[in-house]
Every structure is written in C-alpha cells, then in structure tokens.
Amino acid sequence: MTITEDRRAVPPGVGTSTKNPAAAEAVFHEATLRLLAPLRAMEGGVVADVGPGAGSATVALARLVGDRGRVYAVDLDPAMLDATMAAARRAGVADQVRPIQHDLEDGPPPLPEPVDGVWSSACVHHTRDWDAAVRGLAGLLRPGGVLCLAEGGLPTRCLPWDAGVGRPGLEVRLDEAHNRWFTEWFAARPGARRTRHWGEIMADAGLVDVTSHNALVDVPAPVPDDVRAVVLDELAARVGRATGFLDADDAAAWARLLDPADPAWLGRRTDLVLLTARTAHWGRSPARMTPQG
Ligand SMILES: C[S@@+](CC[C@H](N)C(=O)[O-])C[C@H]1O[C@@H](n2cnc3c(N)ncnc32)[C@H](O)[C@@H]1O
Q1: pLDDT tens-digit profile of 146-189?
Q2: Residue 52 within any structural domain of the chain
Q3: CA 168 to the chain's CA centroid
Q4: Which Gene Ontology terms describe the biological processes this protein takes part in (predicted)?
Q5: Atom of ligand 1 nearest to the CA of 10
C-alpha cells in the first residue's frame, strides 16, 4: 500500500517521513515489537497507539489484547487512520480498533476510558510542547498503566564512509543538514518550547520507574529488495527536507546517488546497509494509594 503525500492533509513536517510508511514500518517491525514490550499489553487490555502511521503497531497491539480488548488509534491525519483501519481489516482485528482523529496540539486525545497502556512512536517530537503532550498522554493512563514513547535513537547508516561520489562523509553531513532543518522547522513555530530529555519530561509528568531501552536495527549488505526500497525512500526524503542546508557539492552527489538513470544509483549497489538503533522511554502511572487505616 502506498499513501501518497498528495492524499494527505497534515501540516508540513508532521507526517510520516516517506511516501510508503507501510513499507518502512514493515522493515522496522521487529524493533518496534521489542520497543513496545514494556507495555505488557495483555488479553482483554485497553491501549492507545498515538500517531499510528500505517498501523503496523496498532495491529500488533490488537493481536495482543485479543477479542476482548480495545486499541484506540489516534492521529490528526485521516489518511493515516484509513491506512490503520485497512491494515486492521487485513489482519482480521478491525473490531478491536477504534480510530480517533485528534491533533495532540489541541490537548490530550479524547479517549472514552482510562487505558492500561499508551504507545506512541515518532509522533510526539512533532508537537511544539513536548512536556504538555507527554502530560496529556500520561493523563490517559489508569493507575499502574504504562506510557511507552519511541523517540530518538541513533542516526541511520546506509552508505560506506566514502560512497565513491562526492566528498567522503556524505551521510554524516546529511545528518547534520537534516538536524539543522529540523531545528529550524521546530523552533519557527509559535509556541515551540525548548525540549528536554524524554525521561525527565516523563518523570515531571508524574510517571514513576522511568527508564529507556534501545533496539538495534542491523541489516547487513547485501540488503534484500524491500529494505533497499525503504533505504532509498528514506534517504530521498531526508535529502529533500535537508536540501536548503546541504552545500552544492553534496546536493549534486545525492542527486546522482538517488537518480536511477545515473551509474552511481544506490539502487544498484551491493554495499548498502541499514544500521541504526531506536530508543523507547517508558514509565508507569503511580498505582492508586490505598487509604491508611
Ligand atoms: C513519523 S509517523 C510515525 C508512524 C509510526 N508510529 C511509526 O513509528 O512508524 C508520525 C505519525 O504521527 C502523526 N502525527 C504527527 N503529529 C501529530 C499530532 N500533532 N497529533 C496527532 N498525530 C500526529 C502523523 O500523522 C503520523 O501518523
């Protein structure tokens, strides 16, 4: 399934990073399953997936909670909710999934009941005030419930240091340019607040036992075709966003590497890899205090 950007109506910068989020989610799915494990989503449980993208984590959660459980899928983008429901139907779990269209910038999602767990991956960092968004998500939990945020990790490495085109270190400079693009995009919005470490934000939101863990994503060369397609897509998207921050030589080198008509096209290379680490931060809502007798 491909969700094209022109079908989508989200503010620039907040959507999925590529035009085919389902393909990207499939490549990262194993890592996602490891990162959402602290939720301990169980048969009959009630959980939320905030910013589900194409819905692969929603489907995984719906399988875990089973017929008697519920997964609220919350997204500002109706196309993402359509994609999530289509994925849930294909997996035979649509009855457990409840789509809710909501923008986190407008406050906490309006869920009809407290939930045992909230999962949110690569979504909250789009909001202007991470503290406010995390407080809102923490407030959705029942006492003892778990918030698990997959945010941050390591930059992805796909190319050798010397890609044979342009100056060595092309990918490191792309990270730097992309970082400058994101920083400028983030801060230019009215009301954008300086960010802090996710763990501190979660603890200040009242969560306890806050901790982080990482999942390595390691696909060595030669990468299979599905991974190659996602790597090419992600690189093209990153180069597109960072364009204004790359120098002319680097922009020209990337144009060659991403052009199927050029002999240097990454689609033909045998030395492409996918190596990265993703991080999840999780914390528990304090259990209700029992009155002392
Ligand atoms: C980069 S995608 C991540 C998708 C998926 N969770 C993953 O990890 O691959 C971000 C998702 O969050 C949604 N999103 C971004 N900003 C949002 C906001 N302010 N409120 C609700 N959803 C938002 C986007 O529409 C998209 O579905």
Answers
A1: 999 999 999 999 999 999 999 999 999 999 999 999 999 999 99
A2: yes
A3: 29
A4: methylation
A5: 25
